[in-house]
Amino acid sequence: MKKILQCKKCNKYTIKEKCECGGIATIIKPPKYSPKDKYGAYRRKAKENVDNK
């Protein structure tokens, strides 16, 4: 089963790894949730910094 990809260059959705525009498509699926998230504190701190600006 193929996954849906999104082009970094034009933000179009595709199944191919190369988009029509010539950009590279990447997986758009979010990471799995884990209660033992090692990097959760870093993400929350980064989000807090963005929100304060």
Helix count from the secondary structure assignment: 1
Compressed to H and E, one letter per element, the order equals EEEH
What is the structural class? alpha+beta
What's the story with the biggest beta sheet?
3 strands, antiparallel
Question: What portion of residues belong to β-strands?
Answer: 15-25%
Radius of gyration: 15 Å
Measured between the Cα atoms of the first and last residue, the distance is 42 Å
Strand order of the largest sheet: 2-1-3
Number of strands: 3
Name the shape in a single word.
Answer: flat
Q: Spans of 5+ residues with little confidence (pLDDT < 50)?
A: none
- Mean pLDDT reading: 85
Q: Which range best describes the helical content: under 10%, 10-25%, 25-40%, 40-55%, 55-70% or over 70%?
A: 10-25%
How would you characterize this protein structure?
With 53 residues, this protein is α+β, with helices and mostly antiparallel strands. The chain is 25% helix and 15% strand. The chain has one helix at residues 40-52, and strands spanning 5-7, 13-14, 25-27. Strands 2-1-3 form a 3-stranded antiparallel sheet, with no helix packed on it. It is flat.
